[in-house]
Amino acid sequence: MNRSQMRVFARRSAMQALYQWQLTGYNLTEIERQFVEEHGLGHGDPAYFNELLHEIPKNLDTIDAAIGEFTDRPIGGIDPVERAVLRIGAYELLYRAELPYRVILNECINLAKTFGSAQGHKFINGILDRIAHKNRAIEIAAFSKNSD
């Protein structure tokens, strides 16, 4: 499994763990322990899973504000799967500048297609695209210039 595939697995596991945290409010360390024991993270990137699981709640106010700026409903009114995916995408867009924005959007759209509602991926794409345009304008402009 290459690094990219390991990150995909880590995101997928983190999305499921964040979903559980959102619904239950359980302790993050306990959720992490459960995921490691029951799901095994040997195929993924355990350090990245850990980062997403702990840093997203730590930076929740900033992440939710970035999402809330581009949605017409309160963050709590967003489907829990889509909320977890949006939080991962927003976190990566805001805090992981080394990850290309197009990779982040693509990965989150794929998560939404796999776990979310039928049209949830379109909602995810729209919100994350707007966050990217606001926070990664230079990267987007460079990509657009190179694509022409």
Automatic annotation (TrEMBL):
Gene3D superfamilies: NusB-like. One of its GO terms (molecular function) is RNA binding. It comes from the Bacteria. Residues 10-132 form the NusB/RsmB/TIM44 domain. One of its GO terms (cellular component) is cytosol. GO terms for biological process: DNA-templated transcription termination; transcription antitermination. Keywords: RNA-binding, Transcription, Transcription antitermination, Transcription regulation. Coiled coil: none annotated. InterPro entries: NusB-like_sf, NusB_fam, NusB_RsmB_TIM44. Involved in transcription antitermination. Required for transcription of ribosomal RNA (rRNA) genes. Binds specifically to the boxA antiterminator sequence of the ribosomal RNA (rrn) operons. NCBIfam families: nusB. Belongs to the NusB family. This is Transcription antitermination protein NusB. The gene is nusB.
